[in-house]
Design goal:
Blueprint: H1 2-5, H2 14-20, H3 42-46, H4 69-72, H5 97-102, H6 125-129, H7 149-153, E1 172-174, E2 185-187, H8 197-204, H9 218-231, H10 264-268
Antiparallel strand pairs: 1-2
């Protein structure tokens, strides 16, 4: 009722203007003083603060999502340069060491986060794509899902709301040129399953008709490649005119088809 009869929203006091303009705020006596209890500098957020490190207010740069554990004990010496948050927020507290290490914490009033280890396990990108060579020994989670046939064909009308899985093409690869302790992880670009099939067929040596390439996907191309290799088991062998038998030393047949004895090569010499 008071807001309807005598509203003061349109009025502003001189004190409010002084606080917003930081009038009367003195510079710090020396550099490196603790400003953890001070307010955030509004001018620094806008990029117009000219006081630099001597500003009595805190200069926060970037988004800080985790509370500084040293600041909680009053031992942080970095001040505004700390990459962690100097603010008590229960939702941004660091993870409890004892709960993450031993699976339990005896402190009933523990201020740190207790995160379930199972929730931190990520889904295996190889298993989600179809096959993981590590099997049950894989450190990532293997979750059985049903792929969306419409998405594999080319388009799913349900989009992100589809109850089936839309497989992704981005995979995490490890560079084998580096040692195991300095494994460099690389991520393939997330491309669509429909790509330049004619280019892939040219480089991979796939024996496809160009008329069929328009409706093929990467998965069907791999299946076709495996089928061709199974049908042409001896397709990669050299012609008999270029084959030399190591038993008799003559050309025109393989050693497993040679009718002469094993000493024929020595006797001919």
């Amino acid at each position: 009722m008071q807001e309807l009869i005598a509203s003061i929203e349109k009025f502003s006091f001189d004190l409010e203007k002084d606080i917003e303009g930081q009038r009367g705020a003195l510079l710090l006596p020396f550099h490196g003083m603790d400003k953890s209890g001070a307010a955030v500098c509004d001018f620094f957020v806008k990029g117009v603060c000219r006081k630099g490190p001597m500003c009595p207010f805190r200069h926060l740069s970037g988004e800080k999502t985790v509370v500084c554990k040293h600041w909680l004990r009053g031992l942080c010496k970095k001040g505004d340069q700390c990459e962690f948050l100097h603010e008590y927020d229960m939702g941004r507290m660091p993870e409890c060491y004892f709960y993450s290490k031993f699976g339990e914490c005896s402190n009933k009033d523990c201020p740190f986060l207790h995160i379930d280890p199972a929730s931190k396990v990520k889904d295996c990108p190889w298993y989600d794509r179809g096959f993981c060579k590590h099997g049950p020994a894989c450190k990532h989670r293997h979750t059985r899902r049903v792929m969306c046939t419409n998405y594999l064909v080319g388009f799913c009308p349900d989009g992100p709301k589809c109850k089936y899985v839309h497989p992704k093409a981005d995979l995490v690869l490890c560079n084998t040129d580096h040692p195991k302790n300095t494994t460099v992880q690389q991520r393939l670009p997330a491309t669509s399953l429909h790509c330049d099939l004619e280019t892939i067929a040219k480089h991979q040596g796939l024996m496809f008709d160009h008329s069929r390439l328009s409706h093929l996907t990467v998965i069907s191309m791999v299946q076709e490649r495996i089928r061709k290799l199974q049908e042409n088991v001896y397709g990669g062998l050299r012609p008999l005119e270029q084959v030399t038998c190591f038993k008799c030393g003559e050309r025109g047949h393989y050693a497993n088809k040679c009718n002469r004895s094993r000493l024929a090569f020595l006797m001919r010499k």
